[in-house]
Protein backbone atom coordinates (compact mmCIF):
# COMPACT_ATOMS: atom_id res chain seq x y z
CA UNK A 1 0.00 0.00 0.00
CA UNK A 2 1.51 3.29 -1.12
CA UNK A 3 0.15 6.59 0.16
CA UNK A 4 1.70 9.86 -0.92
CA UNK A 5 4.75 8.00 -2.23
CA UNK A 6 6.30 8.39 -5.62
CA UNK A 7 5.83 5.39 -7.87
CA UNK A 8 9.49 5.48 -8.89
CA UNK A 9 10.66 2.01 -7.89
CA UNK A 10 14.19 0.71 -8.37
CA UNK A 11 15.81 -2.62 -7.63
CA UNK A 12 18.70 -3.16 -5.25
CA UNK A 13 20.65 -6.30 -4.39
CA UNK A 14 19.05 -9.14 -2.41
CA UNK A 15 15.56 -8.48 -3.86
CA UNK A 16 15.31 -5.08 -2.18
CA UNK A 17 13.21 -2.36 -3.79
CA UNK A 18 13.30 1.35 -3.04
CA UNK A 19 10.46 3.85 -3.23
CA UNK A 20 11.32 7.53 -3.41
CA UNK A 21 9.54 9.79 -0.91
CA UNK A 22 10.70 13.33 -1.70
CA UNK A 23 14.25 13.59 -0.32
CA UNK A 24 14.16 10.22 1.47
CA UNK A 25 13.29 6.70 0.38
CA UNK A 26 11.72 3.46 1.57
CA UNK A 27 13.66 0.21 1.50
CA UNK A 28 11.30 -2.66 0.71
CA UNK A 29 12.59 -6.14 1.44
CA UNK A 30 10.93 -9.53 1.60
CA UNK A 31 9.59 -10.17 5.12
CA UNK A 32 11.63 -12.43 7.37
CA UNK A 33 11.49 -13.67 10.94
CA UNK A 34 14.57 -11.63 11.93
CA UNK A 35 13.14 -8.37 10.59
CA UNK A 36 9.79 -9.02 12.28
CA UNK A 37 11.46 -9.82 15.61
CA UNK A 38 13.65 -6.72 15.47
CA UNK A 39 10.60 -4.57 14.68
CA UNK A 40 8.58 -5.96 17.59
CA UNK A 41 11.40 -5.69 20.14
CA UNK A 42 12.54 -2.20 19.14
CA UNK A 43 8.98 -0.86 18.99
CA UNK A 44 8.27 -2.31 22.44
CA UNK A 45 11.43 -0.75 23.89
CA UNK A 46 10.71 2.55 22.16
CA UNK A 47 7.20 2.59 23.63
CA UNK A 48 8.57 2.13 27.16
CA UNK A 49 11.22 4.81 26.60
CA UNK A 50 8.60 7.15 25.14
CA UNK A 51 6.34 6.95 28.19
CA UNK A 52 9.22 7.12 30.66
CA UNK A 53 10.98 9.96 28.85
CA UNK A 54 7.83 12.06 28.52
CA UNK A 55 6.97 11.68 32.21
CA UNK A 56 10.52 12.25 33.48
CA UNK A 57 11.20 15.32 31.35
CA UNK A 58 7.79 16.83 32.11
CA UNK A 59 8.57 16.53 35.84
CA UNK A 60 11.97 18.18 35.34
CA UNK A 61 10.43 21.03 33.33
CA UNK A 62 7.63 21.50 35.86
CA UNK A 63 10.01 21.49 38.83
CA UNK A 64 12.30 24.12 37.29
CA UNK A 65 9.43 26.34 36.13
CA UNK A 66 7.68 26.22 39.53
CA UNK A 67 10.80 27.03 41.59
CA UNK A 68 12.55 30.36 41.06
CA UNK A 69 15.54 29.13 43.09
CA UNK A 70 16.21 26.55 40.36
CA UNK A 71 16.01 29.06 37.53
CA UNK A 72 19.73 29.82 37.39
CA UNK A 73 21.82 30.02 34.25
CA UNK A 74 22.83 26.36 34.10
CA UNK A 75 19.35 25.04 34.86
CA UNK A 76 17.79 27.23 32.17
CA UNK A 77 19.88 25.46 29.54
CA UNK A 78 19.04 22.11 31.13
CA UNK A 79 15.37 23.14 30.95
CA UNK A 80 15.67 23.74 27.20
CA UNK A 81 17.41 20.39 26.74
CA UNK A 82 14.67 18.73 28.77
CA UNK A 83 11.98 20.38 26.61
CA UNK A 84 13.69 18.99 23.51
CA UNK A 85 13.87 15.52 25.10
CA UNK A 86 10.19 15.74 26.04
CA UNK A 87 9.20 16.53 22.45
CA UNK A 88 11.30 13.61 21.23
CA UNK A 89 9.63 11.24 23.69
CA UNK A 90 6.12 12.62 23.18
CA UNK A 91 6.08 13.13 19.39
CA UNK A 92 9.09 11.66 17.57
CA UNK A 93 9.13 8.25 19.23
CA UNK A 94 5.41 7.54 18.66
CA UNK A 95 5.89 8.51 15.00
CA UNK A 96 8.80 6.08 14.84
CA UNK A 97 6.61 3.26 16.18
CA UNK A 98 3.81 4.07 13.73
CA UNK A 99 6.25 4.14 10.84
CA UNK A 100 7.85 0.81 11.75
CA UNK A 101 4.51 -0.91 12.29
CA UNK A 102 3.17 0.37 8.96
CA UNK A 103 6.32 -0.80 7.17
CA UNK A 104 5.90 -4.26 8.66
CA UNK A 105 2.38 -4.28 7.16
CA UNK A 106 3.73 -3.10 3.76
CA UNK A 107 1.99 0.25 4.19
CA UNK A 108 4.16 3.21 3.17
CA UNK A 109 2.77 6.63 4.05
CA UNK A 110 5.09 9.36 2.88
CA UNK A 111 4.02 12.21 5.16
CA UNK A 112 4.56 10.09 8.29
CA UNK A 113 8.11 9.32 7.20
CA UNK A 114 8.79 12.96 6.35
CA UNK A 115 7.42 14.17 9.69
CA UNK A 116 9.46 11.60 11.57
CA UNK A 117 12.66 12.34 9.64
CA UNK A 118 12.28 16.10 10.05
CA UNK A 119 11.61 15.90 13.79
CA UNK A 120 14.43 13.38 14.19
CA UNK A 121 16.95 15.65 12.45
CA UNK A 122 15.73 18.72 14.33
CA UNK A 123 15.98 17.00 17.72
CA UNK A 124 19.50 15.68 17.09
CA UNK A 125 20.77 19.11 16.05
CA UNK A 126 19.08 20.90 18.95
CA UNK A 127 20.48 18.35 21.43
CA UNK A 128 24.06 18.87 20.24
CA UNK A 129 23.52 22.63 20.07
CA UNK A 130 22.23 22.90 23.65
CA UNK A 131 24.94 20.57 24.98
CA UNK A 132 27.54 22.75 23.23
CA UNK A 133 26.06 25.88 24.82
CA UNK A 134 26.03 24.19 28.23
CA UNK A 135 29.71 23.28 27.87
CA UNK A 136 30.64 26.81 26.77
CA UNK A 137 28.60 28.33 29.61
CA UNK A 138 30.40 26.17 32.19
CA UNK A 139 33.79 26.99 30.70
CA UNK A 140 33.02 30.71 30.69
CA UNK A 141 31.77 30.59 34.30
CA UNK A 142 34.95 28.88 35.53
CA UNK A 143 37.58 30.78 33.56
CA UNK A 144 35.98 34.25 33.46
CA UNK A 145 33.77 34.52 36.57
CA UNK A 146 33.61 38.34 36.64
CA UNK A 147 32.78 38.69 32.94
CA UNK A 148 30.31 35.82 33.37
CA UNK A 149 28.36 37.72 36.03
CA UNK A 150 28.31 40.86 33.89
CA UNK A 151 27.47 39.48 30.46
CA UNK A 152 25.49 36.27 31.09
CA UNK A 153 21.78 36.48 31.90
CA UNK A 154 18.76 34.24 31.57
CA UNK A 155 17.14 36.29 28.74
CA UNK A 156 20.40 36.25 26.77
CA UNK A 157 20.77 32.49 27.19
CA UNK A 158 17.18 31.95 26.09
CA UNK A 159 17.50 34.30 23.12
CA UNK A 160 20.78 32.74 21.96
CA UNK A 161 19.47 29.18 22.25
CA UNK A 162 16.16 29.92 20.56
CA UNK A 163 17.85 31.88 17.75
CA UNK A 164 20.37 29.12 16.98
CA UNK A 165 17.68 26.44 17.28
CA UNK A 166 15.48 28.41 14.88
CA UNK A 167 18.31 28.60 12.35
CA UNK A 168 18.83 24.84 12.64
CA UNK A 169 15.11 24.19 12.11
CA UNK A 170 15.11 26.38 9.00
CA UNK A 171 18.14 24.48 7.71
CA UNK A 172 16.45 21.09 8.23
CA UNK A 173 13.23 22.24 6.56
CA UNK A 174 15.18 23.65 3.61
CA UNK A 175 15.27 20.10 2.22
CA UNK A 176 11.61 20.59 1.31
CA UNK A 177 12.60 23.62 -0.79
CA UNK A 178 15.34 22.13 -2.92
CA UNK A 179 18.44 21.54 -0.76
CA UNK A 180 19.97 18.34 -2.11
CA UNK A 181 20.96 15.44 0.13
CA UNK A 182 24.69 15.72 -0.58
CA UNK A 183 24.85 19.36 0.54
CA UNK A 184 22.63 18.65 3.53
CA UNK A 185 24.74 15.77 4.82
CA UNK A 186 27.98 17.66 4.17
CA UNK A 187 26.81 20.69 6.17
CA UNK A 188 25.30 18.53 8.91
CA UNK A 189 28.46 16.47 9.32
CA UNK A 190 30.60 19.60 9.44
CA UNK A 191 28.40 21.24 12.08
CA UNK A 192 28.29 18.13 14.26
CA UNK A 193 32.07 17.83 14.07
CA UNK A 194 32.40 21.48 15.11
CA UNK A 195 30.02 20.88 18.03
CA UNK A 196 31.99 17.81 19.13
CA UNK A 197 35.33 19.66 18.92
CA UNK A 198 34.00 22.61 20.95
CA UNK A 199 32.52 20.29 23.59
CA UNK A 200 35.74 18.28 23.83
CA UNK A 201 37.98 21.36 24.16
CA UNK A 202 35.70 22.91 26.78
CA UNK A 203 35.64 19.82 28.97
CA UNK A 204 39.37 19.17 28.63
CA UNK A 205 40.00 22.72 29.87
CA UNK A 206 37.49 22.23 32.69
CA UNK A 207 39.14 18.95 33.68
CA UNK A 208 42.60 20.57 33.78
CA UNK A 209 41.26 23.46 35.87
CA UNK A 210 39.50 21.07 38.25
CA UNK A 211 42.71 19.08 38.78
CA UNK A 212 44.67 22.28 39.37
CA UNK A 213 42.05 23.51 41.83
CA UNK A 214 42.12 20.18 43.67
CA UNK A 215 45.91 20.39 44.03
CA UNK A 216 45.68 23.98 45.28
CA UNK A 217 43.10 23.01 47.90
CA UNK A 218 45.30 20.15 49.08
CA UNK A 219 48.34 22.42 49.35
CA UNK A 220 46.34 25.12 51.14
CA UNK A 221 44.93 22.68 53.68
CA UNK A 222 48.41 21.28 54.38
CA UNK A 223 49.85 24.76 54.81
CA UNK A 224 47.00 25.76 57.10
CA UNK A 225 47.53 22.74 59.33
CA UNK A 226 51.23 23.56 59.69
CA UNK A 227 50.81 27.26 60.33
CA UNK A 228 47.64 28.81 61.79
CA UNK A 229 48.98 32.35 61.61
CA UNK A 230 46.95 33.57 58.67
CA UNK A 231 45.42 36.95 58.30
CA UNK A 232 41.78 37.00 59.41
CA UNK A 233 40.67 39.49 56.73
CA UNK A 234 41.84 37.23 53.90
CA UNK A 235 40.07 34.11 55.09
CA UNK A 236 36.52 35.13 54.09
CA UNK A 237 37.54 36.15 50.56
CA UNK A 238 39.51 32.95 50.03
CA UNK A 239 36.64 30.86 51.34
CA UNK A 240 34.16 32.61 49.08
CA UNK A 241 36.43 32.14 46.09
CA UNK A 242 37.01 28.47 46.90
CA UNK A 243 33.28 27.95 47.49
CA UNK A 244 32.42 29.56 44.13
CA UNK A 245 35.00 27.48 42.28
CA UNK A 246 33.92 24.28 44.01
CA UNK A 247 30.24 24.94 43.23
CA UNK A 248 30.94 25.73 39.58
CA UNK A 249 33.22 22.68 39.32
CA UNK A 250 30.43 20.48 40.68
CA UNK A 251 28.03 21.83 38.05
CA UNK A 252 30.70 21.28 35.40
CA UNK A 253 31.06 17.67 36.55
CA UNK A 254 27.31 17.18 36.19
CA UNK A 255 27.53 18.66 32.71
CA UNK A 256 30.29 16.19 31.88
CA UNK A 257 27.96 13.30 32.75
CA UNK A 258 25.29 14.74 30.44
CA UNK A 259 27.81 15.13 27.62
CA UNK A 260 29.04 11.59 28.22
CA UNK A 261 25.48 10.24 28.01
CA UNK A 262 24.91 12.09 24.72
CA UNK A 263 28.12 10.74 23.22
CA UNK A 264 27.46 7.16 24.38
CA UNK A 265 23.93 7.18 22.95
CA UNK A 266 24.78 8.91 19.65
CA UNK A 267 28.19 7.37 18.91
CA UNK A 268 26.83 4.01 17.59
CA UNK A 269 24.47 5.90 15.27
CA UNK A 270 27.33 7.98 13.86
CA UNK A 271 29.46 4.89 13.28
CA UNK A 272 26.53 3.12 11.59
CA UNK A 273 25.84 6.11 9.31
CA UNK A 274 29.48 6.36 8.25
CA UNK A 275 29.75 2.60 7.68
CA UNK A 276 26.52 2.40 5.67
CA UNK A 277 27.72 5.15 3.35
CA UNK A 278 31.12 3.50 2.90
CA UNK A 279 29.90 -0.02 2.07
CA UNK A 280 26.83 1.19 0.13
CA UNK A 281 24.40 -1.28 1.72
CA UNK A 282 22.07 1.13 3.47
CA UNK A 283 19.08 -1.21 3.13
CA UNK A 284 20.79 -3.76 5.43
CA UNK A 285 21.42 -1.09 8.06
CA UNK A 286 17.84 0.14 7.71
CA UNK A 287 16.43 -3.21 8.88
CA UNK A 288 19.16 -4.70 11.07
CA UNK A 289 21.28 -1.88 12.57
CA UNK A 290 19.45 1.45 12.62
CA UNK A 291 16.53 0.13 14.74
CA UNK A 292 18.98 -0.57 17.59
CA UNK A 293 20.91 2.68 17.20
CA UNK A 294 17.59 4.55 17.21
CA UNK A 295 16.66 2.90 20.52
CA UNK A 296 19.99 4.06 21.99
CA UNK A 297 19.28 7.63 20.86
CA UNK A 298 15.82 7.46 22.44
CA UNK A 299 17.44 6.15 25.63
CA UNK A 300 19.26 9.46 25.96
CA UNK A 301 15.92 11.19 26.62
CA UNK A 302 15.57 9.06 29.76
CA UNK A 303 19.20 9.24 30.88
CA UNK A 304 19.33 13.04 30.88
CA UNK A 305 16.61 13.63 33.52
CA UNK A 306 18.02 10.74 35.56
CA UNK A 307 21.41 12.51 35.60
CA UNK A 308 19.77 15.82 36.55
CA UNK A 309 18.11 14.23 39.57
CA UNK A 310 21.17 12.23 40.54
CA UNK A 311 23.46 15.27 40.56
CA UNK A 312 21.09 17.89 42.02
CA UNK A 313 19.52 17.46 45.44
CA UNK A 314 17.51 20.67 44.98
CA UNK A 315 15.95 19.34 41.79
CA UNK A 316 15.11 16.01 43.45
CA UNK A 317 13.38 17.84 46.29
CA UNK A 318 11.44 20.05 43.87
CA UNK A 319 10.29 17.03 41.84
CA UNK A 320 9.12 15.22 44.99
CA UNK A 321 7.14 18.31 46.01
CA UNK A 322 5.67 18.59 42.51
CA UNK A 323 4.56 14.95 42.60
CA UNK A 324 2.91 15.61 45.98
CA UNK A 325 1.06 18.62 44.56
CA UNK A 326 -0.11 16.61 41.54
CA UNK A 327 -1.36 13.81 43.80
CA UNK A 328 -3.33 16.27 45.93
CA UNK A 329 -4.87 17.86 42.84
CA UNK A 330 -5.82 14.47 41.44
CA UNK A 331 -7.46 13.49 44.75
CA UNK A 332 -9.34 16.79 44.92
CA UNK A 333 -10.46 16.40 41.31
CA UNK A 334 -11.63 12.84 41.95
CA UNK A 335 -13.55 13.88 45.07
CA UNK A 336 -15.19 16.78 43.23
CA UNK A 337 -16.20 14.48 40.38
CA UNK A 338 -17.70 11.98 42.83
CA UNK A 339 -19.57 14.69 44.74
CA UNK A 340 -20.96 16.21 41.53
CA UNK A 341 -22.08 12.81 40.31
CA UNK A 342 -23.73 12.13 43.67
CA UNK A 343 -25.53 15.50 43.62
CA UNK A 344 -26.80 14.91 40.08
CA UNK A 345 -28.05 11.50 41.08
CA UNK A 346 -29.87 12.96 44.10
CA UNK A 347 -31.45 15.64 41.91
CA UNK A 348 -32.67 13.04 39.45
CA UNK A 349 -34.11 10.92 42.23
CA UNK A 350 -35.65 13.97 43.90
CA UNK A 351 -37.34 15.15 40.71
CA UNK A 352 -39.27 11.92 40.30
CA UNK A 353 -42.89 12.05 41.58
CA UNK A 354 -43.40 10.41 44.93
CA UNK A 355 -45.72 7.42 44.88
CA UNK A 356 -49.20 8.07 46.33
CA UNK A 357 -50.35 5.82 49.09
CA UNK A 358 -53.90 4.52 48.65
CA UNK A 359 -55.67 4.16 51.93
From TrEMBL:
Bilayer disposition of the protein: Multi-pass membrane protein
Transmembrane annotation, as ranges: 32-65, 77-98, 118-136, 157-178, 184-210, 256-279, 285-307
Record-linked SUPFAM superfamilies: Family A G protein-coupled receptor-like
KW Glycosyltransferase (keyword) present: no
Gene Ontology cellular-component annotations: plasma membrane
PROSITE patterns reported in the protein's UniProt record: G_PROTEIN_RECEP_F1_1, G_PROTEIN_RECEP_F1_2
Subcellular location: Cell membrane
InterPro entries: GPCR_Rhodpsn, GPCR_Rhodpsn_7TM, TAAR
Sequence ranges assigned to domain G-protein coupled receptors family 1 profile in this UniProt record: 56-308
A Pfam family hit: 7tm_1
Protein origin, superkingdom: Eukaryota
Keywords: Cell membrane, G-protein coupled receptor, Membrane, Receptor, Transducer, Transmembrane, Transmembrane helix
Similarity-based family: Belongs to the G-protein coupled receptor 1 family.
Protein's name according to its UniProt entry: Melanocortin receptor 5-like
Organism classification: Eukaryota, Metazoa, Cnidaria, Anthozoa, Hexacorallia
Underlying gene: LOC116289474
Amino acid sequence: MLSGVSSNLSMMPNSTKTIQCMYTMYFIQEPSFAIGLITVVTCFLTGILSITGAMANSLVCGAILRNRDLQNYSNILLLLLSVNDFLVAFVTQPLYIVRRVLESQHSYICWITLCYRSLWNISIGVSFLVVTLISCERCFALFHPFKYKIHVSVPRLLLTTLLLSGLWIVFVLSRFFGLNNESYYYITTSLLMIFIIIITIAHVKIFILARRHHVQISMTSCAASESNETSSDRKPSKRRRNHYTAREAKIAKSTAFIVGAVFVCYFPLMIALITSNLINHEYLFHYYVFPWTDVLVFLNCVLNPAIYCWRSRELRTAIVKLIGVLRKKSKVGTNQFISKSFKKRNKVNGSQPKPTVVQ
